[in-house]
Automatic annotation (TrEMBL):
This is N-acetylmuramoyl-L-alanine amidase. Belongs to the N-acetylmuramoyl-L-alanine amidase 2 family. SMART domains: Ami_2, PGRP. Residues 349-495 form the Peptidoglycan recognition protein family domain. CDD domains: PGRP. Pfam families: Amidase_2. It comes from Pelobates cultripes (Western spadefoot toad).
Length: 517
């Protein structure tokens, strides 16, 4: 059963963001129903399982190992080359679903905590490793040779024309069911089972019953009960579109990136090696998944990919109920899906929520900002003076700053709205909705964004600058938190201080909307 969306008013938003996120979430996370597992749900556990499967199938390629894992997750009864332990562990790690109960609220199953602090759905990752983020060749196996889909773009809208063949040239639902039953669901024929890729998932997300096209595709994230030994992942709010959560998107992006490497490098590259290089290298590549995925999309038509995936799925057994959807409605759905995905997942930065870096509760009652805000103030922390390059180090720096601001300075919370680590992530301070304590006399009219480190003589690396300059600001404007004609300033322009450091101050003078006075 899907979670109910309880965020409806500003009052609910206020309660949700502070009371629920910082208090209830942790009490819910430690409670568990009888279906929960004691397995540590982190990337190391998943990679260990992959290595275990590889040892059982020593001559198998990375793709075959990935298919084997997906097959284990889909089959309630498995009779193959794997042990009962391997099968049980695979089903726990790969059964992605959203669960709701009165005792635990919304929990996301089948997700793991990555070393970079992000949460990933391994099943989405494996599908993308095998099939990519869209589906082309697999669909051709299900469609008649006499059918041709001709895609045209007309006034930014997609239209479909079937020139050869009609419904009698397609596989009917009964034909697909019959042929698939004869093939069975063996590992060798898994390619014949239509994959649910990111492209199709985006399209289906806006086809759900009662879903409106203007419903934002929010990046539903959550909190683990423990960072050192994570077992239960509590969603902060209900997914706006089915089970299309941030963990699912992360997995699909990561799998696309790893699958591309697998096709470009030697065929004997092991799946476990791919995962280790991507997640455990220092610095890790995973914090920049959105940027890497965006590069892969260059030259690709996302609308066409979703359209092809939808029609491919509609011609399969599982898509028999989709034949009554008109092409006009489908075009509108695809346009909404592409618009929302590009905004929330490709243009916006990845933000580590408070509960993930170990924030303490706010002291007192926060004050709600009146958005959009017209000012952006850039800071550096000065202390800590060294840039942090990992989730673990950046989390410690955030905790240290919060302690200093609350205990030494007597503030209600960490002062900054957001903080940029050199690991590739933004860290949520007071966030989008609450008045901060970053720029004296101006906290109600602007967001304060600080870079961790002392940047008097050095600069953050370009990818880190880009997270704020090219993603945070654009995202804030499009989301309605920042005014279109905002003004950007350095802290020193408003307060007697050397912040944000000489080098960083010189840098931000080149940024869009910087104002000297």
């Amino acid at each position: 059963m899907l979670c109910l969306n309880y965020r409806t008013t500003k009052d609910n938003l206020k309660m949700d963001a502070w009371c629920l996120t910082y208090f209830v979430v942790f009490s819910l996370c430690v409670s568990a129903d009888i279906n929960n597992t004691t397995m540590v749900m982190n990337m190391e556990t998943f990679i260990t399982l992959v290595q275990d499967i590889e040892s059982s199938l020593p001559d198998s390629s990375a793709r075959v190992v990935a298919k084997q894992l997906l097959h284990v997750a889909k089959s309630p009864v498995y009779t193959g080359h794997l042990s009962e332990r391997q099968v049980n562990n695979g089903q726990i790690l790969l059964a992605h679903k959203i669960m709701w109960s009165n005792e635990t609220g919304c929990q996301e199953k089948g997700v793991v905590l990555a070393p970079d602090g992000s949460t990933v759905a391994p099943s989405a990752l494996l599908r993308a490793v095998i099939w990519g983020w869209k589906q082309d060749s697999d669909c051709k196996q299900l469609q008649s040779e006499n059918k041709e889909l001709v895609l045209e773009r007309n006034n930014s809208e997609l239209k479909i024309k079937n020139y050869i063949g009609h419904m009698n040239a397609e596989y009917s639902c009964d034909q697909w069911s019959s042929s698939n039953d004869q093939q069975g669901f063996s590992i060798d024929s898994l390619d014949d089972v239509l994959p649910i890729t990111l492209a199709t998932s985006l399209g289906f997300a806006f086809l759900a019953h009662g879903m409106t096209l203007d419903t934002p595709l929010t990046a539903t994230d959550g909190c683990w009960d423990s960072i050192s030994a994570p077992r239960f992942f509590q969603l902060q709010n209900a997914p706006s579109h089915g089970d299309l959560t941030l963990a699912f998107i992360n997995g699909a992006m990561d799998g696309t990136i790893l699958g591309k490497r697998l096709r470009e490098e030697p065929k004997d590259l092991r799946l476990s090696t791919l995962l280790q290089d991507y997640y455990e290298e220092k610095p890790a590549r995973s914090p920049f998944r959105r940027q890497e995925f965006n590069k892969i999309l260059e030259g690709e038509d996302l609308e066409v990919a979703i359209l092809r995936g939808f029609h491919c799925y509609r011609n399969s057994k599982l898509g028999c109920g989709l034949h009554n959807i008109t092409e006009d409605h489908l075009n509108s759905v695809i346009a909404a899906a592409v618009r929302e995905f590009k905004h929330h997942f490709l243009e916006c930065p990845s933000i580590i929520p408070r509960c993930m870096w170990g924030a303490k509760p706010y002291n007192g009652n926060p004050t709600l900002l009146k958005t959009p805000l017209s000012q952006i103030y850039i800071h550096h922390t000065y202390i800590p003076s060294q840039p942090c390059t990992s989730f673990q180090d950046c989390s410690k720096d955030m905790q240290s700053m919060q302690d200093f601001h609350q205990q030494d300075r007597g503030w209600d919370d960490i002062g900054y709205s957001f903080v940029a680590g050199s690991d590739g992530y933004l860290y949520e301070g007071r966030g989008w909705h609450w008045v901060g304590a970053h720029t004296k006399g101006h906290n109600t009219v602007g967001y304060g964004v600080s870079f961790i480190g002392n940047f008097m003589s050095l600069l953050p690396e370009e990818p880190i600058l880009s997270v704020v300059r090219d993603r945070f600001l654009l995202c804030g404007v499009k989301s309605g938190y920042i005014s279109l004609n905002y003004i950007l300033k350095g802290h020193r322009q408003l307060v007697n201080t050397s912040c944000p450091g000489d080098s960083l101050y010189q840098e931000i003078q080149k940024w869009k909307n910087f104002k000297e006075s």
